[in-house]
Amino acid sequence: MKWRAYPKYRDSSVEWLGEIPIDWNVLPLKYVCRESALYGANVPASEYVDQGVRFIRTTDIDDFGQLGKNDAVYLAPSLVAEYMLEDGELLLSRSGTIGRSFVYDEEKHGDCAYAGYLVGFKPRSILSPRFAFYFTKAKQFEEWLSLSVISSTIGNVNAQKYANMPLPIPPPPEQRAIAVFLDRETERIDALIAKKERQIELLQEKRAALINYAVTKGLDANAPMKDSGIEWLGEIPERWPVAHLKSVLERNDGGVWGEDSDNTGTLVLRSTEIALDGSWHIEQPARRFLSAREKEGARLREGDLLVTKSSGSAVHLGKTAVVTEEVAAMGCCYSNFIQRLRANAAAYPRYLFWIINAPPGREQLAFLGSTTTGLKNLSAQIIGAIQVPTPPIREQRAIADFLDLETARIDALEKKVKQSIEMLREYRTTLVSAAVTGKIDVREEQ
């Protein structure tokens, strides 16, 4: 969409702002505030109470300047009497999520105070709080931040730096018009993004349902069914036997320890190089090498399955990948946090991949995993004891080929939707940046 430019511009004398409309000013933030650079309260968590004044922390503010509804904390009014927010007050995060911003609305938010990693600014009538908020969402603000961050243990921008930040200042009615325009346009863009995010959720649900149905019901919709006797499998085709996974495996063994590492030995694959969808992400910085003392038996070959057997997250426990021809050609070993499964003649590797990666299969592994030292763990015995349907090998191949094709189509659709979301987000930032710095004239946009 094309927007009009202002009739005349002048140099702002600020390199990262560039030109601004001729009747705009550029002033430090503190010059357009009644009070500025006000640090929040430092109160320990031990003082939190169930009811009282809401205590706003940087983690409570999201990227859109909204307060999260969960994990709100409260304090007794007497503890934060000097830190109570005033209507229209602007908060800026000085550490952690640097630059995150929030405008306090007394009617909407109720009584609130703010924490020490936030800095408060109370605008004068010359500055619209919403205009100032939108400036913090502009690319120019990000550029100013990158120039202003102090390098220390934790990067931060102190209150005085914020106070001295140059701010483009249109006439107040124009500020309000820009804020109203951006409220409307960003709401439209955010609604589109939300629809597309819901579309992704539906595609993921469809993908999961497709995998689960294919590996438990097969591809013949008219096949007579029987009760598998296993809760997570339910009914399966009548002629499919159910077997323990170990009965269709030639190998089920752990990998090598990686303490003895260098840059000249054998590539050792880790669970971090396996994505949740079973694809590979092997990049040079992520590689770990082991000296020539590694076990020769840990060498991988095409068709091997690698299963994550130890993880701090139940989501990653049991994630599985099939060793491709390209990966096998690297002469890899695999780490001790991974279990290698090698199918025997009764099983097709890609079919085993899909049945392990099916939602019920992953849930079963997460449920069976034991917890030690903060990690969820699977053993060869646990993995081998999982019961799986074992259709004839030709049918396994057909199911795997079907799922390879159909999930690739869904994944391609999901990728397109994600790309469109990124384009919308980029457009949102570009539109905000152009409006608050006067690159487009939106005064008469309805």
Descriptive account of the structure:
The chain is α+β, with helices and mostly antiparallel strands and 446 residues long. Among the domains are: 145 residues, Adenine-n6-DNA-methyltransferase TaqI, Chain A, domain 2; 150 residues, DNA methylase specificity domains (Adenine-n6-DNA-methyltransferase TaqI, Chain A, domain 2, Alpha-Beta Complex), CATH 3.90.220.20. It is built from 10 helices and 25 strands. A 4-stranded antiparallel sheet has the order 4-10-7-8. A 4-stranded antiparallel sheet has the order 15-22-18-20. A 3-stranded mixed sheet has the order 6-5-9, with no helix packed on it. Helix 5 packs across helix 7. The longest helix has 46 residues. The protein is elongated. The chain starts with 8 loop residues before the first strand and ends in a 10-residue tail after the last helix. The relative contact order is 0.12.
Which descriptors would you attach to this protein?
446 residues; Adenine-n6-DNA-methyltransferase TaqI, Chain A, domain 2; alpha+beta; 21% strand; four-stranded antiparallel sheet
Summarize the structure.
This protein has 446 residues and is an alpha+beta fold. It has ten helices and 25 strands.
Q: How far apart are the first and last residues' alpha carbons, in Å?
A: 15 Å
CATH level 1 class label of one domain: Alpha Beta
Mean pLDDT: 90
Structural class: alpha+beta
Helix share, percent: 25-40%
Tell me the Rg in angstroms. Answer: 29 Å
What is the fold's blueprint, element by element?
Blueprint: E1 9-11, E2 19-21, E3 25-28, E4 33-39, E5 53-56, E6 73-75, E7 90-93, E8 101-103, H1 106-109, E9 112-114, E10 118-123, H2 129-135, H3 139-148, H4 159-163, E11 166-169, H5 172-217, E12 225-227, E13 235-237, E14 242-244, E15 249-254, E16 266-269, E17 288-290, E18 305-308, E19 310-311, E20 320-322, H6 325-328, E21 333-334, E22 338-343, H7 349-357, H8 359-368, E23 370-372, E24 375-377, H9 380-385, E25 387-389, H10 393-436
Helix pairs in contact: 5-7, 5-10
